[in-house]
Specification:
2 domains; alpha/beta; single chain; Rossmann fold
């Protein structure tokens, strides 16, 4: 997980989790040793150069010349914890049957990168030796047939290896693959259960573990309270210094802020002890706690943890996964909730917020620590971060359990500077224009079964989330500027038939 530390000046320094991708090239012995040496040389060159642009290192790991090579390399990729996925390119013609057992054994996401070393056909140089060496055009087709014949889930990227468009597409897939690894290893701690009588936050945890890898388990709030008692004054003062470096204090009630620090430290202690990277809680289960964790949850999200309110373990997991996908990117990712609308003609916007827990990574200005009554939960007024989200294109994504399968719903949105000051609303908030429009976008979201909780990300792209969903083998609905109700209804009907047959 991305950890956040501070330098001597108080600036935030992020360390990225060790992640890399393997570059494996397809060839054969038919064309002689010199060709194989050239293929290897070019493979190393291409991997090194592409790594300068890609978000994660691409490491040349070998050339497949036989079935034994394919099996050996795919097994090694499986065993390498840092390897998040495999990228395959066929420099020459590589007979497809050589790959069958290796591809069958591969347990990592993989991408077929259809490219070639030379950009242009050299008019004077080209001869049969050149053709034998540079025959990716039909080598990739042979390999592609075997992928299709085996019905393998894979990403296909086509383009020149030095072009930004191809590298951007490959980089997007890489980020999705990092999300896949995060998902397969993810533990979610639930402090208490779901909010009573709420439907969409429920779901099949067993199926979620089978499908996504998530280990979702409950810990009593009483255990959290006991851990809070073990937090030391020194730890609290160190956490207060972290708050001072990141945020503006807009309250004199330091005791309340220190209580949030105590809550945050206790939650983190328990998460780290379990190897968990996401958590949920609910205002209906705060036994022994004086405040609902507000600032505590927000700062944990700023440090990379996933969170879901009211026991929503699915959005908690998705928040962590999207944060892993987008690590190192500047826009921010947050747990979000559609709260209320502005329906004035020409000013149709959604106001996203929550009781307290919106991640400060999406803030346009330095967040303020404030203390206000909450009006829910029957506890003391909690400290929380108050800020506005910044403007720019973003996505809202939610994962719902449709009974027998999961559905990922993605909506394109445009975040804006709030059109109102809202001086008496002491919570973090983001305002956005939903695509295609507020009313139609909301209608399509509702028709698809979208939850009121979502992950809002300025960094994750629809394609990144679609790539992740394909790796996970789940249904995707994407609401765009061109979406219509008729088309969505037709898609939902066909998807229902197809996924019932598939599952």
């Amino acid at each position: 997980m991305t950890k956040t530390i501070f330098d001597e000046s108080g600036e935030i320094v992020q360390k990225m989790q060790e992640s890399s991708f393997w570059f494996i090239i397809g060839s054969q012995t038919l064309y002689g040793q010199q060709v194989l040496e050239t293929v290897e040389q070019r493979g190393r060159e291409m991997a090194d150069e592409m790594s300068r642009t890609l978000p994660f290192p691409l490491l040349y790991r070998g050339t497949v010349k036989s079935p034994q090579d394919a099996v050996r390399l795919m097994k090694m990729a499986n065993e390498d914890a840092a390897c998040c996925g495999v990228v395959v390119w066929c420099h020459t013609f590589s007979p497809g049957k050589m790959w069958i057992e290796g591809l069958r054994l591969l347990q990592k996401p993989y991408c077929h990168f259809a490219t070639q070393y030379n950009r242009a056909i050299p008019n004077e140089e080209i001869d049969m030796d050149f053709m034998n060496l540079n025959q990716a055009a039909h080598g990739d087709r042979e390999y592609g047939f075997m992928e299709a014949r085996m019905r393998l889930a894979r990403k296909v990227v086509m383009g020149y290896w030095q072009d930004n468009a191809a590298l951007q597409e490959l980089g997007t897939w890489m980020r999705a693959a990092v999300g896949y690894r995060t998902s397969r290893q993810l533990k979610v701690v639930r402090f208490g259960d779901n909010m009573r009588e709420v439907a969409v936050t429920e779901g099949d945890k067993v199926e979620a573990q089978i499908k996504f890898g998530w280990q979702v388990n409950t810990w009593p709030v009483g255990s959290l309270v006991e851990e809070m008692a073990r937090v030391t004054p020194q730890e609290i003062e160190e956490k207060m210094a972290e708050y001072a470096a990141r945020y503006t204090f807009a309250t004199d009630d330091m005791e309340t802020v220190r209580y949030q620090a105590r809550e945050e430290l206790a939650i983190q202690h328990m998460l780290d002890a379990e190897g968990a990277e996401a958590f949920s809680n609910t205002f209906q289960d705060l036994y022994g706690m004086r405040q609902l964790p507000g600032l505590a949850s927000q700062n944990l999200m700023a440090n990379g943890y996933g969170y879901g309110g009211e026991g929503d373990w699915k959005v908690s997991a998705m928040t962590r996964i999207v944060k892993a996908m987008t690590q190192g990117m500047p826009g921010g990712t947050a747990f979000m909730e559609d709260y209320t609308y502005n329906l004035e003609p020409g000013k149709e916007y959604s106001l996203g917020a929550h009781m307290l827990e919106v991640c400060p990574s999406v803030a346009v200005q330095q967040p303020r620590i404030e203390v206000h009554p909450l009006g829910i939960g029957d506890r003391e007024p909690p400290a929380r971060l108050v800020f506005e989200g910044h403007a720019g294109p973003a996505v809202a994504a939610t994962l719902v359990d449709m009974g027998g399968r999961f559905r990922l719903i993605i909506q394109d949105i445009e975040c804006v500077k709030p059109v109102l000051d809202m001086p008496n609303l002491p919570v973090a908030r983001v305002m956005w224009r939903a695509k295609p429009s507020l009313c139609l976008g909301a209608r399509l979201w509702i028709l698809a079964g979208g939850a009121h909780h979502s992950v809002l990300s300025y960094d994750a792209t629809p394609q990144m989330l679609k790539d992740w969903a394909e790796m996970m083998d789940i249904e995707v609905i994407h609401i765009t500027d061109s979406s219509t109700e008729d088309a969505l209804r037709q898609q939902l009907l066909l998807n229902d038939i197809a996924w019932r047959l598939k599952c």
